[in-house]
Amino acid sequence: MTNTLDVALVQVAYGDDESVAQRVDRVCEWIQDLDQTDLVMLPELWAHGGFASSTWSSTAETLSGVVISRLAEVARKLSTWIHAGSIIERAEDGAARGPLGRGLWNTSVLISAAGEIHTTYRKIHRFGFGEGEPQLLEAGEELAVASLEWSANQTVRAGLATCYDLRFPELFRSLGEQGAELVLLPAAWPMPRVEHWRLLGQARALENQAWVLQCNTAGTHSGVQMGGHSRIVSPAGEVVAELGADEDVLTGTLDLDLVSRVRAEFPVLGDRRL
Ligand SMILES: O=C(O)CCC(=O)C(=O)O
């Protein structure tokens, strides 16, 4: 039996006039209307706003807040894994607040088909060159590789990375060393650099011989036009499917056995000099 994973990447568009609560309602309804799939994926900070940094501290929530609770409910109802994209995570009362003492992170959350939080990943590389994320958010310090199982003998090891992380190949290499055959990358990547997004997504897939799912944001918010072009890239670095710039859903079926076939046919990873 072949090991396949059906995926739906939800490229959410938003502006400045929709509240977080309205967007959560809209996106949860949208996911429930999708055809049955094994994994639904959302963009980085789709609820809190990728570049809405002036409101992050007021809209931030804990992992048991509204965004994740609502998506967990949907995952349970549909019996589907949901990669929630990321949220601005606020530390629980009394929990460690990180070196800046802010207690806020850009955290990706993978929810199982049973509606449980399965894996979290706090974005390691903060974007903004001293402003925005590095000023307001703590940096993540731990890699995350999750084992997903969606039916008998259907499994994959998936590494988590977020947006700007795409520019740091050593992170992806480390995920591969921990067994990642697939990388899940939600983003709020701007239109002016969309060619970097496309080039680097293919490079990360090709050099690690792993599937890469890039789920970006659409629309314009906080004065920044988002790039869209969510895509599915194969372990051979080929773009299997790609969206345009508008709000849309990208669906596809990943042949997970392709990872071992590509690695056996062209065993470049074995020639590394450490
Ligand atoms: O690296 C880039 O060009 C965009 C990164 C970014 O927008 C982010 O990490 O939020």
UniProtKB/TrEMBL annotation:
GO-annotated molecular function: hydrolase activity
UniProt keyword DNA repair present: no
UniProt domain CN hydrolase: residue ranges: 5-256
InterPro entries listed in its UniProt record: C-N_Hydrolase, C-N_Hydrolase_sf, UPF0012_CS
Keywords assigned: Hydrolase
PANTHER family to which the protein is assigned, alphabetical: DEAMINATED GLUTATHIONE AMIDASE, NITRILASE-RELATED
Family recorded in the similarity comment: Belongs to the carbon-nitrogen hydrolase superfamily. NIT1/NIT2 family.
Name the record gives this protein: Carbon-nitrogen family hydrolase
Source lineage: Bacteria, Bacillati, Actinomycetota, Actinomycetes, Propionibacteriales
